[in-house]
Amino acid sequence: MEMLGRLLCGLAAVLLMSSAVRAQATGGACTSTWASSTNTAVGGGQTQPATVNTVALCQAACTSTAGCTGFDWNGVNTCWLSGSWSGTWYNGTANGLTHYVLTPASGNCGVCSPTWTTLASTSIGGGQTQASTVNTVALCQAACITTTGCNGFDWNAATTTCWLSGTWSTTWYNGTATGITHYTLIPASSNCGGSVTSRV
């Protein structure tokens, strides 16, 4: 799946895909990166839903979680977030686990943040319903970012339901969709100094 960009840059950026999704700005680097250590883990990790089953989705989950500084990955399909809540480091003794450490883009570039605008009581027909484990705004944002053609989503806070919108969407229901909030993605390339290209 093609990665469309980062949702946040630093604590605001939500995404680095594959080994790293990189956004490079003309005249200087604007790159969040991940460093990895094999057979290493950090105690107290937050176990992620079963649908967070790739390194890319684990990176997205981390960058969309306040305080997250990295994650442990079992090499197959399980992800544990680490951060301000973490405990003991198991460096070189956690067989089969790889620990990834985030270096946010905010440390080596200027403001380069994809953002989301919201419209209350608004939805778009034809939305792609997401799995029940995509049950927070942050996970819905991550799902949109990792879906080709997605430019926003509808969110029902009462039922924690997420529907992605994009090239497949139909009618706008502006102000008439009670209980639904529509989020529209403004990619980093729209509000980042210099010319930005996102790629895997």
Write the layout of secondary structure elements.
Blueprint: E1 22-25, E2 28-30, E3 33-38, E4 40-42, E5 46-47, H1 55-63, E6 68-73, E7 79-83, E8 89-91, E9 98-103, E10 115-120, E11 122-124, E12 128-129, H2 137-145, E13 150-156, E14 161-166, E15 172-174, E16 180-186, E17 196-199
Antiparallel strand pairs: 1-2, 1-17, 3-9, 4-8, 5-7, 6-7, 6-9, 10-16, 11-15, 12-14, 13-14, 13-16
How is this structure best summarized?
By secondary structure, the protein is mainly beta. It has 2 helices and 17 strands.
Explain what this protein looks like in three dimensions.
The chain is mainly beta. The protein has 2 helices and 17 strands. It has helices at residues 55-63, 137-145; strands at residues 22-25, 28-30, 33-38, 40-42, 46-47, 68-73, 79-83, 89-91, 98-103, 115-120, 122-124, 128-129, 150-156, 161-166, 172-174, 180-186, 196-199. The chain has 2 domains: 33-103, 3-Layer(bba) Sandwich (Hepatocyte Growth Factor), CATH 3.50.4; 115-199, Hepatocyte Growth Factor (3-Layer(bba) Sandwich), CATH 3.50.4.10. The N and C termini lie close together (10 Å). It is elongated and about 55 Å long. The model is unreliable at 1-29, 107-111 and 190-200 (pLDDT under 50). The chain has a 5-stranded antiparallel β-sheet, covered by helices on one side. Strands 10-16-13-14-12 form a 5-stranded antiparallel β-sheet, with helices on one face.
